[in-house]
Amino acid sequence: MAVPAESNRLRKAVRTATKVQCLPGPLARKIRIGQYVVPTKASFGWLCRRPSKADIKPYEAAFRALVQKPAQASPFLYKIMRGHMWDLRFLALQTLVSVVLRYATRMGGQLPQRLQSKAGWPRNLVVGLVSLGWVQRGTWSFYHEALNLTLKFQTEGEPLPSHKEASHWIRESWRWWLYGLFASADRRENRNNPGWLPEYDEMRVQRCRKLHFDAHSLAFVTGASVSPAAYFQMKASKNPSLGPDDVPPCPFCGLAAPEATFVHVAWECPRNGKPQHVVPTDPLEKRLRWPTASGDACLRWLAHVRGVVLGSRRA
Ligand SMILES: [Zn+2]
Prior knowledge:
The chain contains 14 helices and three strands. The longest helix has 21 residues. The protein has a three-stranded antiparallel β-sheet. Helices cover about 55% and strands about 5% of the residues. By secondary structure, the chain is mainly α. The N and C termini lie far apart (about 50 Å). It has a domain of about 110 residues. Strand 2 and strand 3 form a beta hairpin. The structure holds zinc ion (ZN).
């Protein structure tokens, strides 16, 4: 159970998120305001206890509503692209790490030998870091194998990591962990092509996060692709007697909905009008349009296709 002060702060944060959602004006502005005022309220004070699932649920629901996350988007990719402000456990861990680092700096790198203790902030620190893939390598020292990073809160003479460095590493390990959750999620793209996702690549993620997103492109990079086939499957799961012609076909060539997959409408349809220079270089670009080294031609193309497919449903 949360202590009353934490619960109160959380309740206030959720209320604030709802209020921001009701403000007039464009969505981007509401998100900007929300990110300033909501997380600071909610994330303060979790040093000795990790937020529980019950703490997290209403907070994340309020944030999802505020940012209007598309229903089919992966929550993990959405957090990677837009959401480090609405992961309460991540925010709490980041605060804890910076508090411990500040403490260690003040103590000249000498911390008590009680990291193994079963309660309180030392325990909370270990649980938080281990959950993001860090392995404890001795007292006050952690190693992240996939990212090849070492985080020490106690050193012999060497300087401690700066606040900025440590925050960056924690964020990276959090993104790496979310990417892994997406890779193993029970989703269509994973079921159809097991093992399609390349290894986590910090530069790739960074490039993608820096894109200027509109609603369609953000939906795409977070896995909310749309196709007549997916729409048909979704409808058919609710209504088994649905016929292939009851859902709009490929809007370009008229191929029946069950056959008109995302790959068909976006890449293979002979009549979709795709400019010749738009060619994806790998599966991440083909499915999610995460940019490689240059240009955003694929992203603009897929956003266009998405708009046409959605438009054909409304027609
Ligand atoms: Zn077609």
